[in-house]
Amino acid sequence: MGKRSIFRSHIIMLLSASLLLSACETHPTFLGLDPSAAMDLMSQGSYDFLVEIDVDPQRLDRVEIYGIERGSAYYTARALEDLGRQELAFALLGRQHAHGEEPWSSRSARVMLEQARTDEQRGTAVGAIGSLSSVEDIDDDLASAWIETLWSLGRYEEMLERYEAFGRPAVLSAWAALAQLATGHDRAVDTIREALQSAPRGRGLVILHDYLQDGISGSVRDHVERELRPFEYELLEFRSAVAEADWQSTADFLATVREDPDRAPSGEAAQALGSRVLIGDLREAWFRRRESAAGAEIMEALSIRLTGEVESYALEAAGRLWRAESANRQAVRVLERALEEALPGADRDRVLFHLLHAQISYDHHGVIERADRYLSMIHDPLPFNEIWERVLSHLLVNRRWQDLAEIYGPVRRYASERTLGQYGVALASAIDAGFVSAAWVPDVPAGVSSRSHVLEAAYRQNGSIYYRMLAAVMLGEPLRGMPDDARVVEPPVQSLDDRLVAGYLDFGLVDRAYAAVREEGRHPGEDVLRRLAVILADQGDFLRSLRTANRLTALEGAILDSDLARIIYPEAFAEEMDRVLDEFPLERDIFYGLVREESYFDPQIQSWVGATGLAQLMPQTAADVAARLRVTDFDLTDPYTNLRFGARYLNDLVVRLDAWVPAMIAYNAGQGRVRTWLSERQGLPMILFHESVPFQEPRSYIRNITVSAVYYEFLSGRGDGTGVIRLFFPELGDLRP
Question: For the domain with range 579-732, which CATH number is right: 3.40.630.30, 3.40.50.150, 1.10.530.10, 3.30.70.2970?
Fold first, then answer.
């Protein structure tokens, strides 16, 4: 037994002794244990000693939960859950909730509802939720879980009280209908109809469907059968099947809608189907059942009997179903009609997004001709970046240089900053290559060159680090936003989310801290995220560390100082990397950038296509490399082996293709494709060759590796970062503004 194990055994013996003596002690304890010793173990993530704790959950008192004001009962309860001590964990959560300090009080109530196993525990949990300070503390998911628990306890009147208190939200309408049916309420049928029209997918619809079939009797059944129409029964069965993703069981209803047009897309059916929620369910069902063409035709027919935004939504559904069938001309025809009725903002953006994707599949010229009109209609330009990237690739492949210059005008006025940077760098590269006349570029101020005009905008934008870096080199300016050793540290203002996550870390619950950070709707601050990222990196968990750091850099006002940059761009597996790079003449910063992009330094990671390990090698590629290296037995999850094979493969590609960017695109997309693209695009500078590649993934791949390699070069002190850019894009090697 090692020293650490002996030490831990002694600690557990001391803790057990303190438990036996706790009745005689007068100082505060934690579950009868010495709080300092317990905290030392828990902060290291060592909770085994809790398995032996002998405390009656029904007799907890305040002395037993020393430090409750710091959330210790909550965190200990979460550890006890993992150890199978559910009853004691539940009791601790109850005490923490009763103490009232946030965020642990409301969080304890939520967890109690999730963990309740008996009716007694469920009753305690719903009472805890009911005592939360305001309706704003209860989101839709919690409200639904709460109401469902009330249903399981038979507390129907309380369900209806809560439904009214929440303002009769659609998300609870199916549950309200159930409670009204159970109590014989005369509004039950009306509420069922409201649920059919507006309730989002969820268990409430499933339980309502089952209850109507088997749960009601007597006068209630007579009333429902008299008032609820057969079509509404069918509709409820359909919505229940969709909620359970049982697409096979949607067949009968879809057949009714498709085969009986006099009944389905007109009259009561048209009225019943005329809601956004139902149109969304129908579209999803037709798509999942691979009956998109039939669904598109029905949605078009239905739209004729609708008006306003619901008409637009039905037409949008039809257009998206045509797209799923690759019937892009039909999709554009329908989506143009939807665009006329769509409300400005998110609805119009969504319709326009699908319209442009459909049109660009067969008519790039039409998109380019209407670019000014389309761009001027967009509310949020960010989701459209991919579309304008596809347009740019088309312009470069077909060498439509004047169109490239002319489209820059609307791009500058309406597109996202990232797209502005992308088009500016591409246009400047085309000017440098002599493809574009400076006179073609629109709206250039007097006394300013066209090249400087587009590059200055690319250099100033904050939507893309990559295009900002390229613009800097092309202008001869320093790289903007590089890490600085100086970090101004201000006293942190801790939010409730900060306190929750910090407590997980204090108590050694790193996995739960990471889960909380990634929880939707949670917004922890910089200090907590930085601390978690460092802990994960120290544990060698670079994948989760980098994901946490990415969340950190996305914070408004976040500054990339040197410490944070080294978390985001770690020199992981340095010993193995040194051995590999001694064998193969690759640039260290570039290979680090590639491995970071491929795996986030997770040696066990495997992609859905079967690529494995740090350098993400496919089985056949690995076998070929192994043969060249004369290795007969290998494990791709071994860091050194994987890095060695990846380095050999990349080095071979660089030698064969005689350039870094094509070699890395070949690493990602295959050597045969790259040779074809090089042959078709002869004469294009490397910047434009990269932008002309017809697939999104390799274009993003090069951008990400470039940025990573620049940071690795800068942080290591091997250069200012521009050396990598000039290696990737040789046309910039001797370029001076």
Answer: 1.10.530.10
